[in-house]
């Protein structure tokens, strides 16, 4: 499922959008003034918001199908 998610996010341009946002944050604050924690805190909400609904729906369907298959175990 991780591979599917990764492929779908790359396919829809999510990865490129997030990378561009990271660069913007670093350029705004200056490389010396941004920690990894700052960057994660800044981009996480936008990263979640940028995931297309179609990707969310497809993954949810696959998770439900997986759970339905394995519920009887």
TrEMBL record:
Pfam families cross-referenced by the UniProt entry: EnY2
Q: Which family does it belong to?
A: Belongs to the ENY2 family.
Location comes to: Nucleus, Nucleoplasm
Quaternary structure (record): Component of the nuclear pore complex (NPC)-associated TREX-2 complex (transcription and export complex 2). Component of the SAGA transcription coactivator-HAT complex. Within the SAGA complex, participates to a subcomplex of SAGA called the DUB module (deubiquitination module).
Tell me the function of this protein. Answer: Involved in mRNA export coupled transcription activation by association with both the TREX-2 and the SAGA complexes. The transcription regulatory histone acetylation (HAT) complex SAGA is a multiprotein complex that activates transcription by remodeling chromatin and mediating histone acetylation and deubiquitination. Within the SAGA complex, participates to a subcomplex that specifically deubiquitinates histones. The SAGA complex is recruited to specific gene promoters by activators, where it is required for transcription.
The molecule here is called Transcription and mRNA export factor ENY2
Supply the alphabetized keyword list: Activator, Chromatin regulator, mRNA transport, Nucleus, Protein transport, Transcription, Transcription regulation, Translocation, Transport
* UniProt keyword annotation of Transport present: yes
HAMAP family noted in UniProt? ENY2_Sus1
**One BP annotation, GO:** chromatin organization
Cellular compartments per GO CC: DUBm complex; nuclear pore; nucleoplasm; SAGA complex; transcription export complex 2
Keyword Zinc applies: no
Gene transcribed to yield this protein: ENY2
Q: Which PANTHER family match?
A: ENHANCER OF YELLOW 2 TRANSCRIPTION FACTOR (PTHR12514)
Annotated Gene Ontology MF terms?
Answer: transcription coactivator activity
């Amino acid at each position: 499922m991780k591979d599917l998610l990764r492929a779908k996010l790359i396919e829809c341009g999510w990865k490129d959008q997030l990378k561009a946002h990271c660069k913007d944050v670093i350029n705004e604050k200056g490389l010396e003034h941004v920690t990894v924690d700052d960057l994660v805190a800044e981009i996480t909400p936008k990263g979640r918001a940028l995931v297309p609904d179609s990707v969310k729906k497809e993954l949810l369907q696959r998770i439900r199908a997986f759970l339905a298959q394995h519920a009887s175990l």
